[in-house]
């Protein structure tokens, strides 16, 4: 297997619904499963939820990142999954995160809103690079807190 590192970025629409308790328990399940699978697959990254959308960065060996994305695309807990970028990277940007979940605090929601407003809150108008940079900045802040 080619062990070169790649980064994949996508966004999708939440299909779980807005009910707080149901949403939290679904996200907890997704994160628990992601952390087990991603450790196994040498995948790291971060998942952001805000304004009804998920955005995720997955980084690791290409074959494994693509296999994870195949499974993720089939998942009915979200829809309209749109691939934004798949690029080679020289190093991991989320080395300590099998899958971090960010963006739920008020401060993070505001940062997402600031980036989102530049696209008219249409994630399809955000680039993979913008989403990657936002997630990386939020992850650095979260680790420092
Ligand atoms: P199993 O856990 O055995 O699941 C079998 C099947 O059941 C899968 O098709 C799964 O999609 C489906 N399933 C399981 N529980 C539910 C449920 N409560 N509701 C609906 N369908 C369900 N997986 C990763 O491995 N890494 C990630 O980084 C990752 N990120 C995700 C981000 C988002 C926004 C979402 C929605 C899902 C994510 N997942 C991730 C989960 C992924 O979609 C698959 O569910 C998971 O990878 C399947 O793992 P498994 O092959 O071990 O199958």
Automatic annotation (TrEMBL):
GO MF: blue light photoreceptor activity; FAD binding
InterPro entries xref list: Acylphosphatase-like_dom_sf, BLUF_domain
Domain BLUF: 5-100
Classification via SUPFAM superfamilies: Acylphosphatase/BLUF domain-like (SSF54975)
Domain of life according to the entry: Bacteria
Protein known as: BLUF domain-containing protein
Organism whose genome encodes this protein: Rhizobium soli
Lineage: Bacteria, Pseudomonadati, Pseudomonadota, Alphaproteobacteria, Hyphomicrobiales
């Amino acid at each position: 297997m080619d062990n070169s590192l790649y980064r994949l970025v996508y966004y999708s629409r939440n299909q779980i619904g807005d009910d707080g308790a149901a949403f939290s328990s679904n996200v907890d399940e997704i994160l628990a499963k992601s952390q087990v699978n991603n450790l196994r697959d040498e995948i790291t990254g971060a998942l952001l939820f805000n304004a009804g959308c998920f955005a995720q960065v997955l980084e690791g060996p290409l074959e494994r990142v693509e296999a994870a994305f195949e499974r993720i695309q089939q998942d009915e807990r979200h829809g309209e999954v749109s691939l934004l970028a798949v690029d080679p990277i020289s190093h991991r940007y989320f080395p300590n995160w099998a899958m971090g979940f960010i963006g739920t605090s008020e401060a993070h929601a505001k940062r997402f809103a600031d980036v989102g407003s530049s696209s008219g809150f249409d994630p399809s108008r955000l680039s993979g690079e913008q989403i990657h940079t936002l997630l990386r900045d939020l992850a650095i802040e979260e680790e420092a807190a």
